[in-house]
Amino acid sequence: MQKKAKTKKIRPRTPMSMLDPGKRAREFSEVALGYSLEEAVSEARRCLQCKKPTCIKGCPVDVDCKSFIRMVAEKDLHGAFARIKETNSLPAICGRVCPQENQCEKTCKLRPTGQPVAIGRLERFVADNFYAHTSCEEETGSMECIPVDENIKVAAIGSGPSSLTLAGYLAAQGVKVSVFEALHAPGGVLVYGIPEFRLPKSVVQREIDSLKNLQVDFLCNYVGGMTVSLEELFEQGYRAVFIGVGAGLPRFMNLPGENLIGIYSANEYLTRVNLMHGYKFPEFDTPVPPGDNVVVIGGGNVAMDSARTALRLGARRVRVVYRRTKGEMPARREELEHALEEGVELEILASPISFQGDEQGFLQKVVLQKMELQEADESGRRKPVPVPEAFYELDTDLAIMAVGTGANMVLTQTTPGLELNERGYIRADPVTGETSMNMVFAGGDIVTGAATVVEAMGAGRRSAREILKRIKG
């Protein structure tokens, strides 16, 4: 009788410690606490070390996941960090906010078991626990970088993930990079859009400091297209310009009553709390209305960030209104689960049709239309349609509109010759990042529309490679 081949038993993923939901819902401390060395090694040893690793194909910046995970299993953090830094400039950030479940972990050979290797958590562990001896090692994983040549200059407009990645790549190759930021602090969406409990400001600052040590200049309060133009930058001797200004123009729904006092775009709300340190009140005297009965419109990550922020600022009740069902929300499962654990409520299959206020113009109610879903269309999503004559109201004194963003037109409309697509985003070559203007490159949300941090980083890296090839051969 032939013996059955033994199947290798797959250990479950190593869990990561989290702050208690009851405690964290009222403070801004980071929720995910990270792996210890023992936990990281245990998780790394789950990796099958496939001959043909598919996880790399799922990473927008081509991190050699297989190799760095093997090094973690061997407790070689220097080697693991150097391997990650070969292609990823911001691992501590990616390990926290990138949707690995839809990227590297989605293509992991263990995914069919429901227990893919926790690649993102391991990446965060390496970045958090590696100690660099020099700024060059911090930025590239190598002890030596090419000395910066002050005569070879490149400018980046915007200081989000695409520009930071470009700056790190070029500075390590001896190019002098100046980053122009419209706001009063660098970091872009990493500092104004993502809350402290998901991405501590100290983590972003560490990445910026390492770039400063590589002689990257950050010039804040420079609005691209207004304070500084592309023409002026070329006149000042910059050999190339990269545009990474993001897509920060808030969208509204043009509903009756949408201009009542107490209705905010998610952009403004999160910027007040994050960049302007509203979460540290009264240490910082930033006016952020706490709200008592908060409604958030939308179902993505920004909606979850807004809802969880409102809880931490003292709201008694927070509800997220979404026109489809819970299972179809575009937010990361982890962020949605954390929100629900903390007490956020879902108001599904509903869409706002108007807002109502008092005689002084303050928000009091939102009127909702009940929705139902039709069969899936070509995109695979079921279309929500109104249920006839099915309306109801929710009491609310603060509403946050998290229904997407558009391209900010300040730079694009003041730069003749910069070709845009029908949605107002910059047209750029998908391989090189070059725009319709010679030696002007673009990447990130201003090209693709709202996307992930790591996709923006990939765009910055591709443009940096092309720029380096053009100016240094």
What do you see in this structure?
The mean pLDDT is 93. The protein has a five-stranded parallel β-sheet. A five-stranded parallel β-sheet has the order 6-13-7-8-9. A three-stranded antiparallel β-sheet has the order 10-11-12, with no helix packed on it. Helices cover 31% and strands 19% of the residues. The chain has 473 residues and is an alpha/beta fold. The chain is built from 17 helices and 15 strands. The radius of gyration is 23 Å and the shape is globular. Helix 3 (65-73) runs antiparallel to helix 4 (77-85), helix 8 packs parallel to helix 17 and helix 12 (266-273) packs across helix 13 (301-312). The longest helix is centred in the C-terminal third of the chain and has 20 residues, at 453-472.
Please describe the topology of this protein.
Layout: H1 21-24, H2 37-44, H3 65-73, H4 77-85, H5 91-97, H6 119-129, H7 135-140, E1 149-157, H8 161-172, E2 175-181, H9 189-192, H10 201-213, E3 217-220, H11 230-235, E4 238-243, E5 249-250, E6 263-265, H12 266-273, E7 293-297, H13 301-312, E8 317-322, H14 333-342, E9 345-348, E10 350-357, E11 363-376, E12 382-395, E13 398-401, E14 405-406, H15 409-412, E15 440-442, H16 445-448, H17 453-472
Parallel strand pairs: 1-2, 1-4, 2-3, 4-15, 6-13, 7-8, 7-13, 8-9
Antiparallel strand pairs: 5-14, 10-11, 11-12
* Number of discrete helical segments: 17
Overall structural domain count: 3
Q: What percent of residues are in strands? A: 15-25%
Shape, principal axes of CA atoms: globular
Largest sheet: 5 strands, parallel
Helix content: 25-40%
Cα-based radius of gyration, to the nearest Å: 23 Å
Multimerization state: single chain
Overall CATH architecture of the largest domain: 3-Layer(bba) Sandwich
Strand order of the largest sheet: 3-2-1-4-15
